[in-house]
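Next up, sample data:
>
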Amino acid sequence: MRLLVLLAAALFLIAAHAQAQVYAPYDGYGEYDGYGYDDPYSPYPPPPDYGEPLQEPREPSTRIGRGTIVIATREHTLIYTTSAGEQFAYPIAVGREGKQWYGTTRVVSKRLHPEWRPTASMRQKNPRLPEVVKPGPANPLGTRAIYLADGLLRIHGTNDPSSIGTNASSGCFRMYREDVEELYDMVQPGTRVIVQR
């Protein structure tokens, strides 16, 4: 009987420890309901239809220029114009009302398989958040992160692909895994980023 009690206690501790390592995508307000997508490191489901994709390169506006990322917040779209003038458009998630930022900045660095470190204010709103989430399926930044000059905003992947096309983040710009990996390979530090309403 004593052995049975010890075995049950050991199983309980193992289950509690395993559950403590699973983090849902951070939504900025602190309630976790599970992230609804078990493995963001595998291919995502097809993105929703956001209209006609750009079929061929267009000549960029001279006001914006080549080698620039333009984020159209209302349209939930990120457009990257290469230095050669080729354009790539991607659906994105943007910040919620009150969490959006507009202006001009630049890419300062990039990280492959980034760690996520919730800010002090995020952890105050949700004390269950860890100090750091290591790379892996539970990481809200996904497999790539592109850091912008303000130090807090990022263009990154997500462990919640259903949020793409919505106002869902605490200010960052979320992309499907395949899209952020493609963009990550193309952009370099110094790339200009224009965030429009």
Notes: The chain has three helices and nine strands.
